[in-house]
Amino acid sequence: MRIDIITVSPELIQSPFEHSILKRAQDKGLVSVHFHNLRDYGLGSYKQIDDTQFGGGAGMVLMLEPIDTCISELKSQRDYDEVIYMTPDAKTLNQGTANTLSLKENIIILTGHYKGVDQRVRDLFVTKEISIGDYVLSGGELAAAVLCDAVIRLIPGVLGDETSALTDSFQDNLLSPPVYTRPASYKGLTVPEVLRSGNFPKIDAWRADQAYERTKNIRPDLLDD
Ligand code: 6GU
């Protein structure tokens, strides 16, 4: 998989890709991530990338031309499955979307800033818009890093234990059951007996029950569908 990230702040998004699982995925050649500084495609000697909005109002808007130039250059080099725009005014990211995206070959992720991008960017180039939740971040960069983490860890071969992504919370619309490690007893708090019983069918049943109870208490909305 190849991911091209277009941003006004590459420095804000690069470091998560230099550590842990995201780094290992790249080292293994399972994904390549490329950053493009929108400023490099800016207009004139000031490399202008934003302007005030028509109709008035506070906040700058990212201009159409620099984004067009950058996306067109990328598209001239290869075909893209999706051009994703990170914005709070979109459908919220979920595990299903992450699963779908993990199967794509080439994607572009555009991150907004300031007041966002000229609407015509969205009309002309963007194929999918994603928010990561109902709150506002200063820019789409951190949201793009969140999206990439959720997607990249699902690419086959990225996680050491092939099955571990499958038992994650949300993979099956249930929250994860509680987990414990040594010591079996600590300051009077003991690990549930069943987990130390060695009876694996019983352990599975206990975990399924706990997952359901947790979901019912914390996220009943997940049980609706
Ligand atoms: Cl994708 N961008 C911004 N700026 N804020 C957000 C977001 C995205 N998702 C939730 N809040």
From TrEMBL:
Keyword tRNA processing: yes
Gene responsible for this protein: trmD
NCBIfam families, sorted: PRK00026.1, trmD
Keyword presence, Nucleotide-binding: no
Protein name, entry field: tRNA (guanine-N(1)-)-methyltransferase
Assembly: Homodimer.
GO biological process, one term: tRNA N1-guanine methylation
Compartmental location: Cytoplasm
